[in-house]
Specification:
eight-stranded mixed beta sheet; GNAT_dom; alpha+beta
């Protein structure tokens, strides 16, 4: 059945453009902005993420990260995006569809992070609204899952705002900041009733776009 085929798609050429944000795959030219934002936001991000390797922000580690991203995209296992502000190309954060399962599942896991200076301004809500059509239409997924810590009120608000439904509670589900932590489990199905995904003024979500400032184009 066609429904169960893998999708071969050049994600490195994918640009998702919304009213205020632009998403594209990470590239080598993003290292300085990425490492600076991650370092600046270290204390802000630490409670919500796995422990960082000692060399996590080094150029060598970033090159390994890019090689892994490239391999996983080729293998249809993961689709990473950096989130940029549309007005000036400033890097804001990142979001990834990972752990893709084809066959009878047609499912992926959504993860995201936002730099501290840009948190709480609605950028990630818009970014997730752009990723969902990519997941359901371009990748033909049936289901996108997400998990967050019970004390992460901002993430809970974001997921419910963009149409994810709470499905369960997993004990000691992921190792976060060195500790096994309980997580609330969320999911969004392709045919779920949804808030408006395509925002006013947005370009096509499924075509490559060249509307980024010149310094940020691939």
């Amino acid at each position: 059945m066609a429904f169960f085929r893998s999708v071969s798609y050049p994600a490195t050429e994918t640009v998702l453009t919304g009213e205020h944000v632009v998403l594209r795959a990470p590239s080598q030219q993003d290292f300085a902005a990425w490492s600076s934002l991650r370092e600046e936001s270290r204390g802000f991000l630490k409670p919500w993420e796995p422990q960082w390797p000692a060399d996590d922000l080094s150029k060598a580690s970033y090159r390994r990260r890019l090689r892994r991203y490239s391999r996983e995209m080729r293998e249809d296992r993961s689709y990473p995006f950096f989130v940029f502000r549309r007005s000036d190309g400033e890097l804001l954060g990142g979001a990834t569809l990972s752990n893709l399962r084809r066959g009878v599942a047609q499912c992926a896991t959504l993860g995201y992070w936002m730099g501290e200076p840009y948190a709480g301004k609605g950028y990630m809500s818009e970014a997730v609204r752009l990723i969902l059509p990519f997941a359901f239409v371009r990748l033909r997924l049936h289901r996108v899952e997400a998990a967050c810590l019970p004390r992460n009120a901002a993430s809970i608000t974001l997921l419910e705002k963009v149409g994810f439904r709470r499905e369960g509670y997993a004990r000691r589900y992921l190792c976060i900041d060195g500790q096994w932590e309980d997580h609330i489990l969320y999911a969004r199905l392709a045919d779920d009733p949804e808030p408006q995904i395509v925002m006013a003024g947005a370009r096509s979500l499924f075509e490559p776009d060249t509307g980024l400032p010149e310094k940020e184009t691939l």
